[in-house]
Amino acid sequence: MCIDTQPSVSYHTIKGEQHVAKRFYPAVLERGPKGSLAIWFPDFPDCVAGGKTQEDALARSEVALAKAVDALAEADHPLPQPTAFEDISIPKGSKPIAYFAVSVEPPNPSERVNIYLPRNLILQADKKAQELGMSRSSFFGLAISSIIGLSFMDRISLAAPRSIIQAGEKSSPVKRSRE
Known about the structure:
By secondary structure, the chain is of the alpha+beta class. It has 5 helices and 6 strands, in the order βββββαβαααα. It has helices spanning 54-74, 119-132, 136-148, 152-159, 162-165; strands at residues 2-3, 9-14, 18-31, 37-41, 44-51, 96-104. Strands 1, 2, 3, 4, 5 and 6 form a 6-stranded antiparallel sheet that branches. β3 and β4 (37-41) form a beta hairpin. The N and C termini lie far apart (41 Å).
């Protein structure tokens, strides 16, 4: 289900209960040296992705934007409002090929909880979490989500940041001065 709101934000219903605001941020596609392509986001000045093909650059831009959003969330900073296409400021010397929007779902915020469990159970949980390369909190989140019936991808997203979930996607946000 998608509820119509302002052009840059839509709300999606998850399992009929939870609403997550999906944002659409403007991106600028430019041709680089030797035919490479670069994509940058006006709302995230340090977020740049590139590739040899349009498809590669687009895929990397999605991962780069997710990493930028995750970094802001981890630093407890609010997400910027998406800039309108007509308000994008193009740096001197830049030659954009196209403008487009890239969607991203903000991370689901975590909440600290204190629970009491038998020590032996905690030791077993810690051992299994270590085997899986997870933190205790991520392991408990994964265990609980599997019991309450979340899908595989929902469980994975509880256990790792999107940058790890999208393994196989290569992207490295590069700082770029656009002045």
